[in-house]
Specification:
The protein is mainly β. The protein is globular and about 50 Å long. It has a domain of 141 residues: Pectate Lyase C-like (3 Solenoid), CATH 2.160.20. An eight-stranded parallel β-sheet has the order 3-5-9-13-17-21-25-26. A six-stranded parallel β-sheet has the order 4-7-11-15-19-23. The protein has a five-stranded parallel β-sheet with strand order 6-10-14-18-22, with no helix packed on it. Bound molecules: zinc ion.
Length: 229
């Protein structure tokens, strides 16, 4: 029997050994609840994540990490120059959909060369994407940002999707660049969002309830009803 979540996240179906968690289910280390990862600390757990990403980069495959439950703070910078990511030639797409970032999630200045998905991801603590470069489509649909999210200076070169993304604390998009379409629809900015000096190369769609936020005054910003988008 594979991990109890392998039916949903097939990539883990061959991961061994399995861990019997306090809820009675058997999980792979990636999907085991926080604090029940066979004694692995956050650093050791992150090392496993980095190994998977490095392997995918070497094999030009997608790094599928969907549903991963992080043990603590996660900083992409810690991947280091030896194991990657090769910031000059990064090339694998990364799937963090349904992931739970239990600690701070630090993706500052990371260059995502290929598609990256944070669909339905839950950021329990701070999410730092400042200065990150998204060379391909970035998906944050249905993501939940429980604490501050920092996208200052982020560069979205392709479409950016924030459909039904919920920002429960301050969202900072100052000086971000959206070269293609960006969609902030159906979600919510609960305590304010700042888009001062953000640049829009194409259409930016904000649902009407977002009307109160500072979108930087660009003529490309449109307020749309949800049904339009
Ligand atoms: Zn699993």
């Amino acid at each position: 029997m594979p991990c109890v979540l392998a039916y949903k996240h097939e990539w883990c179906s061959k991961v061994k050994p399995l861990i019997k968690a306090s809820d009675g289910n058997r999980y792979c280390v990636y999907h085991a609840p926080r604090g029940e990862k066979d004694g692995l600390g956050a650093e050791e757990f992150n090392a496993r994540i980095f190994t998977r990403i490095s392997y995918s980069m070497q094999n030009e495959a997608e790094a599928n990490l969907s549903g991963t439950i992080f043990e603590g703070d996660f900083s992409f910078k810690d991947l280091g120059p030896e194991s990657g990511p090769d910031t000059e030639h990064p090339h694998c797409s990364i799937d963090f959909s349904d992931a739970t970032f239990t600690g701070n999630a630090d993706f500052a200045s990371v260059q995502f060369a290929s598609k990256v998905s944070f669909k339905r991801a839950i950021f329990c603590k701070r999410a730092d994407f400042s200065g990150a470069i998204f060379n391909d489509t970035a998906r944050f649909d249905y993501a939940i940002f429980n604490e501050e999210s920092d996208f200052t200076g982020a560069f979205f070169k392709e479409q950016a999707h924030f459909f039904d993304a919920n920002f429960l604390a301050k969202a900072d998009f100052r000086t971000a660049t959206f070269s293609k379409e960006v969609y902030f629809t159906l979600g919510a900015f609960k305590t304010g969002a700042v888009f001062t000096d953000a640049k829009y190369g194409a259409r930016a769609v904000f649902k009407r309830p977002y009307a109160g936020i500072d979108k930087g005054g660009s003529k490309n910003v449109h307020l749309s009803d949800p049904e339009e988008t």
